Amino acid sequence: EGHQTMLLSRTKTTEEAANAQKSKKGKQHKKKLPTLESFLEKRDYVGALTLLEFSEGAGKPIDKHSEWVAYCSFHFGDYPRALKEYKKLASQPDCDPSIWLYLGCCCFSLGMYDEATAAAKKGPECPLQNRLLFHLAHKAGDEKLLMIHHQNLQDNFEDELSLASIHYLRSHFQEAIDIYKRVILEHPNLDALHVYVALCYYKLDYYDVSQEILANYLTAHPDSAVSLNLKACNFFRLYNGKAAEAELMLLQEKASASFTFAQDLIKHNLVVFREGQGALQVLPKLMDVIPEARLNLVIYYLRNNDLDEAFKLVQDIEPATPQEYILKGVVNASVGQEQDSKDHLKLAQQYFQLVGGSASECDTIPGRQCMASCFFLMEQFEDVLVYLTSIKSYFFQEDTFHLNYGQALASTSKWREAEEAFLLVQSERLKNDYIYLSWLARCYIMNQKARLAWELYLRMETSTESYMLLQLIANDCYKMGAFYYSAKAFDVLERLDPNPEYWEGKRGACIGVFQLIIARQEPRESLREVMTMLRNSSNNPQVAEIVRVMKKWAKENRVAVM
To answer: Has residue 15 got a pLDDT over 80?
Structure first.
């Protein structure tokens, strides 16, 4: 799925607000250069950095030049430059201790968590230090430390937003929504929080709700890269890849060449929206930039049946999110079925159960799919149907769902519904797969449509799989009393392999057809073909006697068999 990130807060610092007041007083000077405060108000950090560099080059640097360069670089997303500036400031003897916290924030944004922790501890004890250490504890997976910093959070909106983001990162989306809505009521000027709420609803699979919330924000902020990207992702889920791609093109038009994050995001999501087109050229380069790139590359390998590459990539992933657990489950299930490995299948079952049984995922569509997959691997198909039926309406055009749903129905002897499910599959690749063909053939036979099962065989190329399908048709038709097609299948099998069991099957099926003809439940014309099939086993001494009895009956009943 498309990668999203949280927006930075749109609120101004106290210092910015104070400076903004000063700038108003100087408005009477019409031909003055734009002020730093005016750029910051518009969040134009490129403009602000340009002004800072120009002022320094003119020999009139703005007060606290280095601090402002670091601040603007950080908010623009140029974390390496911000880090470089803060390191210079931290090396000065009269350094403000808060610089260490800002330095720590840069390290955190660059994924340098050990350095971020060391820097944070050098800063003063304050809410910012606690928030930074709170997030670092989450990254380190230190639950004990996480709870300590959680308890130190105060009743202010910055700390509440910090807690909400941790809920989001831990996939507790409803808890995050509750906090965001509360903060919005108290601070209605924080427009960006609506995007956070929309993002949470997206993660909960409420794409229409997410889109509705997002539409209002985009009316006021049509150039928001994260919002435009989220809109494209909603369109991908609600409609299709083409609709999503059209929305993403708007983002591409608005994103400046220097806004590298948006460019990477566009490249990544275009691969997703185009169903993997260009995946090998784009995704490997983005794996260290966009976390979902690795997951989507695994999905690409799975769709192209390259299990070895998918397994290599997934081994490096320490699952932390439901999507990562699901993907590890799918890869292990695929490898387990391919290699007939009970260990991999057991591991897949555990991954699926962890997601499907979790409080945050049990009522989501992926959560229910996971429980269905878990029970599928345990061969508890009644339970599989409970979960798949509850989400059936969401997968009307999903071939893999129809295939799995059909197998579960057939495994519980719901043959008519199973046949309907299998016939909804459109993918030619799946329709030529032996699993699909064998289950559909069995459904046809159980639903008294043995002729259609035979036609499936006739359309197959000669192979091991066509031989296996013949065996299935021969035995299942025999059980269901469809003796004519059972005899035809056993006849081909006996000619391919003169196994005594095939002769016995053919003999029984031919006699079965004869009985049905006598009972007027089978066309008399079938008798000639039955006798021809029996004569194909000319070396068997029983053939002559059986054919003699059939010919005698045919003569008495005026049935032409010659």
So the answer is: no
Res 258 pLDDT > 90: no
In our burial notation (b when 16+ CB lie closer than 10 A, e otherwise), range 330-368 reads: bbbbbbbeeeeeeebbebbbebbbbbbeeebbeebeebb
Any idea what DSSP says for residue 316? T
State the CB neighbour count (10 A cutoff) for residue 88.
14
The confidence score (pLDDT) of residue 43 equals 82
13: number of Cβ within 10 Å = 11
Instruction: Over range 214-222, report the average pLDDT.
Output: 89
Nearest to 450 by CA among 524, 400, 534, 513: 513
Residue 7 has pLDDT above 80, yes or no: no
Contact yes or no for 183/1 (Cβ under 8 A): no
Angstrom distance (rounded) from CA 422 to CA 402:
6
Packed helices 225-238 and 193-203: angle between N→C axes, nearest 10 degrees: 30
Q: Which residues contact 257 (CB under 8 A, 6 or more apart)?
A: 263
**Whether the Cβ atoms of residue 387 and residue 368 lie closer than 8 Å to each other:** yes
- 329 near 323, Cβ under 8 Å? no
- Closest among 450, 433, 428 to 441, alpha carbons compared: 450
Residue 290 three-state SS: coil
Among the ranges given (65-69, 261-265, 315-319), the one the predictor scored with the smallest mean pLDDT: 261-265
Name which of 172, 231, 187 is nearest 4 in CA terms. 231
What backbone torsions phi and psi does residue 537 show, to the nearest 5 degrees? -105, 50
Those residues with Cβ within 8 angstroms of residue 406's Cβ, 6 or more apart along the chain or in another chain: 418, 419, 421, 422, 425, 439, 440, 443
45 and 72 Cβ atoms separated by less than 8 Å:
yes
Positive or negative CA dihedral for 308, 309, 310, 316?
A: positive
Helices then strands, counting H and E runs in the chain, come out as 33, 0
**Taking the CB of residue 103, how many other CB atoms lie within 10 A of it?**
26
List own/partner pairs for 202-208 with CB under 8 A and 24 or more apart.
Answer: 202/4, 202/230, 202/233, 202/234, 202/237, 203/168, 203/171, 203/173, 204/173, 204/174, 204/364, 205/237, 205/364, 205/365, 205/366, 207/234, 207/237, 207/238, 208/238
pLDDT tens-digit readout, 379-423:
999 999 999 999 999 898 899 999 999 999 999 999 999 999 999
Question: Which positions ≥6 away from 329 have C-beta within 8 Å?
Answer: 347, 348, 349, 351, 352, 355, 370, 373
Indicate the DSSP class of residue 279: H
What is the pLDDT of the chain when averaged over all its residues?
A: 89
CA-angle at 286, arms to 284 and 290, nearest 5°: 130
